Amino acid sequence: MPKNSEKSIKFNFDVSAYRLLGRELITDRITALFELVKNSYDANAENVTVEFQNINPLSTDSKIIIKDDGIGMQFSDIKNKWMVIGTSSKRRERLSPSPHNRKVSGKKGVGRFAVDKLGEKLVLKTKKKNDSQLLCLETDWSHYSGLENSQFKLNFEDEKPFFTDVENSYWYEDDSKDNQGTTLEISLVSEIWTEEDVNRAYKELSKLVSPNSNLKKTYPFNITIKAPYSGFENKIVKTQLIDFATKKVELSFNAVNKKQEILQYNKAENDLSLISVPERPCGLLKLTLYYFNQEDKRKYKSHFKSDIDGIKIYRDGIITTPFAEYVSHQEKQKDILGIDKRRYSGFFERFGSRDLLGFVEITDENNPNIIESTNRQGFVDNEAWEELRKFIIEQIVQLETYYKNIKKSERESTKSSLGGASKDLKSIKKEIASIKKEASPQVKQKLKNIEANLGKIQGSVTKSIKDYANLEKESKQKENLFFSLVSLQTYAAMFSHMTKHTIGHILTSAEYFSKNYPNQKLESRFIKISKNIYNEMLKLRKGVDFMLKYAKSDTEFEEINVKNLVLNLFEDIYFDRFIDENIKTEIVINDDLILNYNRKSIEDIFDNLISNSIKALKGRNDKIIKCSSITSKNDLTILFSDNGIGIKEEDKFRIFDIFFTKTSEDGGAGMGLYMVKTRVEAMQGNIEVVENELKPSGATFKITLPFKK
Amino acid sequence: MNVTFVIIDDNEEIREHSLLFTLEDKYKNVNFYSNPNEGLQFIKDNLDVNLIVLLDIEFSEKDKKNGHILLEEIYNTSALIPVILWSGINETTEEFSDFINNHAFGFLSKTSTLDESMLIVDKAYNHLKNSLDNTIEDWIIQNEVDKDKTIYLNADGDSFSLNDILKEIRLQTPIGKEFSSKLNALTIDLLLRKKEKL
């Protein structure tokens, strides 16, 4: 249709916009304070005072005053920046004016609406150096809410003023030329601030600046809290101090050759080392990580009267907001890095956010794609953020592995010292026996007593050794059981999907029969349907057989023909899947290769490798999975390859880590390759990622199993 | 009313599923497509007949389109076709968002019995039967003489017979949509002014 006449129309804001940007966007008071203090930082302030006046109980005299000695604003700043929602000034100028040249922390241009969370009325007083007058601006949010309420009663849309129509008054006051800075005087305070609340504000503000930041030295940024509580008359906020950590790890990067340091647990030497890997998609970053064991945690808590509260992210030295949110119960704290949400986090000596203090240092320059969400409660969900999370979890996993192995070797040494004690006791007994022969009757009697006591001690040492061995066996059994459960979960998902289809098919077929039989005209259908029922039943039987094997005992050893085992998986169990996904298979294994081992363990290994490959082959053409073996004098090498997406260079070090997965909700993912690795290691073998056999892309796993001598 | 069923499922075994036989017994015309593109093309080529679609959600790797995308494409082709999702996965929030966004007519589980399935299928049939286009079609069948009478003039001055209008509605052209909404408005107006008798 032709356009008759074209006009234009503009978007507008309802008066309620003040709420959306203020109290409903910023969900807690501490975050609101943070936003305002950050504004002072961005304005080159060196001193900020946060003063609480008459805030318990609330009265008309209740005030929160945030005063800084920053560069202040003139009328044009107020008009073009302060009064403009989403102003771009801080996105254009990423550095504050010289000489401070601070990386500005605000970006979105909505931080000042945080005032609304603290109180309903704001008088802003600001002045630049050498101006003789203070510029004062009054914003009365209660006026906006009053308008909002009265608008509900109006019937006609056209009479309603918009957010941008509300007038805010300003005036000038005389002041000394030397002063500079901005003062926010917030009245009609919305909530009582108890001593505990102020203390919270203190603690959280102490985390505003990274303890590793070097900004203090050149141009300090001091925060002072004043409140009508003892100790808070004039309390300077000090950055968080850290001591008593069991282990401190510092990771850095090399910007020139774009290398990132990561933690790598070295099994041979049982040590943690730093290695350099290519830059990750989250960008180069620094990480300081402190781990506290029970004992050190207790020391930290009693000394600093503060909790160990996980890992925080700092951008250009200033905390990113999500972590500023305070929750009274640490259990309820947001775990946006997913440290505590890792699957089965109660097992395997996992570390939680209460065992760790960490400072991730990102910068605008190196990590431009990590973006804080506007509501300050998290980060925009993109690849960079996902990779940052993975990066942090990966480092924690390395620490965990390190400590797990320390424990293991401690156990070993306990065991051997117990054994040593038993030996020592025996030789003491021998010596006593030889002395006894030549001793006087008195001494003999005493020696007899000693011998009796030694016998008792020896008895309890022997018992301890036995108990210890039992305990070890028990925990090994528990771990095995747990593994079975986890892999069972993966199969359960696959199995129930298959049964669901099959049962549906059989059910409706039987129903059709019972409804229509006999009927001459439908004869050919009955034949088709009965064939279907038969085929579906066969499928079901196969699935049940497979499940049953899982119920079988886990410890039996038997002679296993490796080729038959792989054939069974490829051509029976996974046959349908491979057809569905269009995957071709290739097996190059000696016919007579026999292993004497637990069948389920070996099946687990191949099974997990297969499902791993299926995932890697998603969306590829000409899919191939290949399994081959090479036997030498001392060991057996199995190569398992696919021509899927391959393993990224940066993932090669962490692919076998447990729970190395993108999402915690992701079914059994993140378990598979870890299980493969543990199973292989239980056989004294080794598994690694080697250069892909199939070209141009893909992955090849190399398993080496030693022959028993 | 004649209706044609279109079943799109990448699993070839479904071709001989008893539900398809039951549909054939009751409604005669049943077309099965294991290739989603062919199924979609059939729908596009047959907009002038009454269609009910049964659509699988999870398609295997080799088909680039899954049920969600197909549902969207069918809805964009014509909003008049009832599409019933027929899947082995459970009804989750994902399916519900599809119900809302792309107006899926219903959800059938692969484990549903024939009786349960036919309840939804019959509901879709009745829905079609009571739709505006089918009312017009019934009218034409009963009053053959009205078929070519001009009943509608649009702003551009084009004239449309009852039969033309039927076609425009089924093909979901702008004229067809405009006519439907104007007719509804007119009916309400008449009812409000107590002019049910013109």
Automatic annotation (TrEMBL), chain A:
It comes from the Bacteria. It catalyses: ATP + protein L-histidine = ADP + protein N-phospho-L-histidine. InterPro entries: HATPase_C_sf (IPR036890), HATPase_dom (IPR003594), His_kinase_dom (IPR005467), Sig_transdc_His_kin-like_C (IPR004358). Keywords: ATP-binding, Kinase, Nucleotide-binding, Phosphoprotein, Transferase, Two-component regulatory system. Residues 494-709 form the Histidine kinase domain. GO terms for biological process: phosphorelay signal transduction system. It holds the Pfam family HATPase_c_3. The keyword Kinase applies. The keyword rRNA-binding does not apply. Signal peptide: none annotated. SMART domains: HATPase_c. Its EC number is 2.7.13.3. It is an enzyme of class 2 (transferase). One of its GO terms (molecular function) is protein histidine kinase activity. This is histidine kinase. It comes from Algibacter amylolyticus. The lineage of its organism: Bacteria, Pseudomonadati, Bacteroidota, Flavobacteriia, Flavobacteriales.
TrEMBL record, chain B:
Residues 4-125 form the Response regulatory domain. The modification 4-aspartylphosphate is found at D56. It comes from the Bacteria. The keyword Repressor does not apply. One of its GO terms (biological process) is phosphorelay signal transduction system. InterPro entries: CheY-like_superfamily, Sig_transdc_resp-reg_receiver. This is Response regulator. It comes from Algibacter amylolyticus. PROSITE patterns: RESPONSE_REGULATORY. Keywords: Phosphoprotein. SUPFAM superfamilies: CheY-like (SSF52172).
